[in-house]
Specification:
Blueprint lengths: L2 E4 L6 E3 L4 E4 L7 E5 L2 E5 L1 H5 L3 H12 L4 E4 L5 H13 L3 E4 L3 H11 L10 H11 L5 H11 L5 H4 L2 H13 L41 H4 L4 H14 L4 H15 L4 H6 L1 H14 L12 H13 L4 H13 L6 H4 L4 H18 L3 H9 L2 H15 L5 H9 L10 H13 L5 H8 L9 H8 L6 H16 L2 H8 L8 H26 L8 H10 L3 H4 L4 H6 L6 H15 L1
Parallel strand pairs: 3-5, 4-6
Antiparallel strand pairs: 1-7, 2-3, 4-5
Helix pairs in contact: 3-4, 4-5, 6-8, 8-10, 10-13, 11-13, 13-14, 14-15, 15-17, 19-21, 23-24, 24-25, 24-26
């Protein structure tokens, strides 16, 4: 830290108690000055020789036939006045980054200019500021911090502006040219580590591009905003470094507890709104702020009552990075807000889908697939969802984002497990979201034995499971066609009939190898088929003559009747 000593005489100021100070001299004090709560017993001559304002105040006091002067609006208070008074006496005073702002404002108040005395205090302070303080990184930061309590004096004297210019100019220099000390204790890893490694390997001391972040983040929010605005508008600072500075500032100043957030809502509101204002523009191709950070910032903005425009801006930014989000980060928000974010993501995806290059980027990087998996996992883990919110959120995800429905099946199964009170029609609505043909073998096997699923869904699972097991051309045709999970009773009967016929054909062709078609289905499947058409599965275990003699499928009426009896029996 730089400092400057003025004067050569010893300091003879002494205190009489806590609130009375006097200058020891052979001469008696001839003026009493009250500055705030402290009283100074001083001499007129040294004060009048340096201060134009003191000349007027003493003259006004003499006209009132008094030697007492009261100053209520002294910038910097009694401490700054004392330094100015000692300078008038020629006593030794030391100026540094911590007191120079207050003394400069006090000297301006007392009008200690060159027309009062050559080489006066204002002149000497300005020389020290320009030649020392503003050339030092640490001192510039400290002085900028001190200017806040001395507004508007520090602003009018351009101390704030000059400090901001000094700090921002140093931030924008080439890191390789830095010779001053700075604070850098953070240990980052992965994408958060913003360090240039372009120097030769033989050089051991690599200065990171974000070397300035910790020192600047010590500033109060208003000064921090002004510095960062200059840095951002220059266009010379990497947006990733700016985003890192904002993340660090939030971590440094934002309370972690809910109680502190709400109790200091006003200051935290200013912080959030400032950070959102300074955020580099987010896009899907280039990530500056992580989606996790944006989601947490969005949560805080809601808690502290940030402006609606700020929240909307955050929702838009989150939607652009939704593919990077984690379920844990989504779960801190209400489902209505998650719905809005997903809706915004899908709207943006649809709007730019006409751009072939963008579409290739989205598909090539699996953005849609990531969002599809994210929403399915969110549906499975959020126990606060209602049936309507579950269905609405699931329906936002397009088919292209769900080539496999295992995640959706898991979410549906979990929801039914946590809501045993669901009616048959509600289960039907839930399962209507799922295409059983897009289940993997593992999920299909689980679904075939799932007692919570409606019977018609289990039958469809068994049907397509059997098609896959037989590897028949019919299976390929059926799997390539599109049809919803929910079928009419007639279609379901026709599909089940085809399944039985297919099973019988398979048994006829594979009896010598497998010993019976019934072995192609798990025990759960056999039990369901036995209850739909009693005796049919048993007939598959008879001799090949009996099996070939019973190859005709049962009437559709019988199938429908048995199916209804089965649904009644498990309801």
């Amino acid at each position: 830290m730089k400092f400057m000593k003025l004067g050569s005489k010893p300091d003879t100021f002494e205190s009489d108690g806590k609130f009375v100070k006097y200058a020891v001299s052979d001469l008696d004090s001839d003026v009493t000055i009250h500055v705030g709560e402290v009283t100074f017993h001083l001499h007129k001559f040294p004060l009048l020789s340096k201060s134009n304002r003191m000349q007027r105040l003493v003259f006004e006091a003499s006209e009132e036939e008094t030697n007492e002067i009261t100053i209520l609006d002294m910038p910097g208070g009694h401490k700054a006045f004392e330094i100015c008074a000692k300078f008038c006496y020629g006593m030794t005073v030391t100026l540094n980054a911590y007191n120079i702002t207050a003394v400069r404002c006090a000297a301006e108040y007392l009008e200690m200019t060159e027309d009062a005395d050559r080489g006066n205090l204002i002149y000497k302070i300005e020389v020290f500021l320009n030649s020392g303080i503003f050339r030092s990184w640490k001192d510039s930061i400290i002085v900028l911090q001190t200017t806040r309590s001395l507004l508007p004096w520090s602003e009018d004297l351009k101390l704030v502006g000059r400090c901001i210019d000094s700090v921002s100019a140093k931030i924008l220099v080439n890191p390789e040219t830095i010779t001053w000390s700075y604070t850098h204790n953070r240990k980052l890893s992965g994408p958060d580590k913003i360090v240039e490694y372009h120097r030769e390997k033989r050089e051991e001391n690599v200065i990171p591009k974000d070397w300035w972040v910790e020192d600047v983040c010590e500033l109060e929010i208003d000064m921090f905003k002004r510095v960062m605005s200059v840095v951002k508008s220059s266009g010379r600072m990497n947006n990733g470094v700016i985003a890192e500075a904002l993340r660090y500032y939030v971590a440094r100043w934002l309370p972690e507890s809910m109680e502190s957030l709400t109790s200091e809502a006003s200051s935290n509101k200013d912080l959030v709104e400032t950070v959102v204002f300074l955020l580099p523009r987010v896009n899907r191709a280039m990530s500056y702020s992580s989606c996790s950070f944006l989601l947490k910032l969005l949560k805080v903005s809601i808690l502290v009552g940030a402006d609606e425009t700020v929240r909307e801006d955050l929702v838009e930014n989150v939607s652009l990075k939704l593919h990077e989000a984690s379920v844990k980060d989504l779960l801190i928000h209400e489902v209505e807000l998650v719905h809005r974010i997903v809706e915004q993501f899908m709207a943006d995806e649809k709007r730019v889908s006409e751009d072939d290059r963008y579409k290739e980027f989205v598909l090539g990087n699996g953005i849609l697939l990531s969002v599809g998996r994210l929403i399915d996992a969110y549906l499975a883990l959020n126990s606060d969802l209602t049936l309507t919110s579950f269905i609405k959120l699931s329906e936002l995800v397009p088919e292209s984002a769900r080539p496999i429905h295992d995640g959706l099946y898991k979410a549906i199964d979990t929801f039914m497990k946590e809501h045993p009170e669901l009616t048959k029609s509600e289960k039907k609505r839930l399962c209507g979201l799922m295409d059983v043909r897009k289940l993997t073998n593992e999920a299909s096997t689980h679904a075939a034995q799932n007692e919570r699923l409606p019977l018609r869904v289990v039958v469809q699972v068994l049907y397509f499971e059997q098609l896959r097991a037989n590897h028949s051309p019919v299976a390929s045709v059926a799997a390539s066609s599109h049809s919803p999970v929910e079928k009419t009773e007639e279609n379901k009967g026709e599909e089940t009939t085809k399944k039985v016929e297919l099973s019988k054909k398979s048994r006829g062709s594979k009896s010598t190898r497998s010993g019976g078609g019934a072995q192609l289905m798990p025990s759960r499947s056999r039990r369901i088929f036995e209850k739909i058409w009693p005796g049919k599965v048993e007939s598959s275990n008879k001799s090949s003559e009996v099996s070939s003699g019973s190859s005709q499928s049962p009437p559709a009426k019988s199938s429908s009747s048995s199916s209804r009896r089965r649904r009644h029996s498990i309801s």
